From TrEMBL:
<dbReference type="InterPro" id="IPR010287">
    <property type="entry name" value="DUF892_YciF-like"/>
</dbReference>
<protein>
    <submittedName>
        <fullName>Ferritin-like metal-binding protein YciE</fullName>
    </submittedName>
</protein>
<dbReference type="InterPro" id="IPR047114">
    <property type="entry name" value="YciF"/>
</dbReference>
<dbReference type="InterPro" id="IPR012347">
    <property type="entry name" value="Ferritin-like"/>
</dbReference>
<dbReference type="InterPro" id="IPR009078">
    <property type="entry name" value="Ferritin-like_SF"/>
</dbReference>
<dbReference type="Pfam" id="PF05974">
    <property type="entry name" value="DUF892"/>
</dbReference>
């Protein structure tokens, strides 16, 4: 049997989300440019700023572990971003574009929420006490972003309903 432990798996998954965040950082300005609604643009740009902070927190986590901050190719996020780019191409100029962008962005958020939820839980199990709050800060931002996207999605699918609830 291999000698690998949960510590190894934790580091491996940390590298996965570090890579993913860097890809997301590159994708968000493209999504902001593609968005037809100003609210959508603002949401993507705000999350780009948050993502910069999230990458810094991950660098702190690597530092606390005494490991170099290094990503590991994450094919899952590459696939989710490739789908977003496809939607931008295929729905350009259509009334459904913004709904498509929001749906793509939510797929990204859900991937991140899954990763941060797992990493936070493992950090607790591994008694990495200084690391738990850093991962939790990223997790909370992803959860808030997901909720914001849900609201924007409902607004773009049903503008009248959105006015009522705004
Ligand atoms: Fe993120
Ligand atoms: Fe995110």
């Amino acid at each position: 049997m291999s000698e690998k432990t949960l510590d190894d798996l934790f580091l491996d998954t940390l590298k996965d989300i570090y890579y993913a965040e860097k890809q997301i950082l590159k994708a968000l300005p493209k999504m902001a440019r593609a968005s037809q609604s100003e609210d959508g643009k603002a949401a993507f740009l705000k999350h780009k700023e948050q993502t910069e902070g999230q990458i810094e927190r991950l660098q702190q986590v690597f530092e606390l572990l005494g490991k170099p901050a290094r990503g590991k190719t994450c094919e899952a996020i590459q696939g989710i971003i490739a789908e977003a780019e496809e939607i931008i191409d295929e729905f350009k100029g259509s009334v459904a574009l913004d709904a498509g962008l929001i749906a793509s962005a939510q797929a990204v958020e859900h991937y991140e929420i899954a990763r941060y939820g797992t990493l936070k839980s493992w950090a607790g199990q591994l008694s990495l006490k200084d690391i738990v709050p850093l991962l939790d800060a990223n997790l909370q931002e992803e959860l808030e972003t997901d909720q914001l996207l849900t609201q924007l999605g409902e607004a773009s699918a049903n503008p009248k309903g959105a006015k009522k609830s705004a």
